[in-house]
Every structure is written in structure tokens, then in C-alpha cells.
Amino acid sequence: MSNEDERGPLYERPKKASHLHTLWYEVDMLDYCLQMLSAGAVRSKPEESVYLEGFLLHYRNVLRFLSGIGHRRSDLSTAEPKVWAGRVLTPEEVEQIQRPAVMLDSKYHADISQYLQHCTVRRMEDEKQWNVSRMNLELQAIIEAFQRSFPRP
């Protein structure tokens, strides 16, 4: 909470010192949501849903950043690293970060979007279960490769 106005408290996310902080914020939130789901700290179904949806949202954001897929002009992503890294990706970084992220994006993005981003018919007709531990494990090697090239500020 940062301020109040006549309608009540105003909230904001932490300020970022650089574009790279934006990605690390997403990773930190992804990790936090996973920890809350995994630690048995969730007390109710609505609370579980909040952490699951938070995990899925940040997972999708991290994948889109790392894969470079769906890049728009105002997006931060590996499709245009000069904006946030000041340089292009090396061939090794493309191989260790971008390519595996593209594969994970193709595996998860559509489902996450249909279950989270949009109100869809599929939500009721085709209930979805998410193995967040497996999803996180699949992403960890990519995040570790990214961190070797672009350490946390």
C-alpha cells in the first residue's frame, strides 16, 4: 500500500531500477506463488486459486520474455535484447535460453491463456489440472542459463 485517496488505499508493485529488474520481479513472484502452493500454507480454495493463477500469470510472462514469441514494440523480450541488455544474444544464449523457452511456450501458453487470461467456454467444459512442480522444473534450467548471462542487478 502506498497512498490513500477518498475511495481507500492505493496499491502498487515495487518500482523497478532497470528493465532487467522487471524480469527478475516476474521470476521472484513465480517462485513465491510456487512456494505458497507447495508449502501447505494455503488455507482455502480461493487462496489456492489466487496462488495458482499468480503462478500461471508469471510463468506465462517469463516464458514470453525468454522465448521472444509474441513480441510487441513495447514488450521486453529476448526478441529485442538491446532494449534491456544493450546487446544481442550470443548463439549460445539463443540455444540455452530462447530455444528451450520457445518449446515450453508452445507447450503451455495456449492453455494458460484460455484458462486464465480469457473467460472461455473451455474453463467449464474441460477442467484443467496444473502440475506446477513439473512446470517449474522444466523452466529452471532456462532461468539458470539466463542468470549466468544476465545476473540479477
Helices and strands: which structural class?
Answer: mainly alpha
Question: What are the low-pLDDT stretches, counting only 5+ consecutive residues below 50?
Answer: none
Distance between the termini: 25 Å
Oligomer: single chain
Residues in helix, % = 55-70%
What gross morphology would you assign?
Answer: globular
Rg, nearest Å: 17 Å
SSE order, one letter for each helix or strand:
EEHHHHHH
The count of β-strands is 2
Count of DSSP H/I helices: 6
Name the strands of the widest sheet in spatial order: 1-2
What percentage of the residues does DSSP assign to strands (E)? under 5%
How many discrete domains? 1
Q: What is the average of the pLDDT values?
A: 92
Major sheet characteristics: 2 strands, antiparallel
Would you write up a description of this structure?
By secondary structure, this protein is mostly helical. It has one domain. It has helices spanning 19-38, 45-67, 82-85, 91-117, 122-125, 132-149; strands at residues 3-5, 8-10. It has a two-stranded antiparallel ribbon with strand order 1-2. Helix 2 runs antiparallel to helix 4 and helix 4 (91-117) packs antiparallel against helix 6. The radius of gyration is 17 Å and the shape is globular. The mean pLDDT is 92.
What labels describe this entry?
single chain, 4% strand, mainly alpha, two-stranded antiparallel ribbon, 153 residues
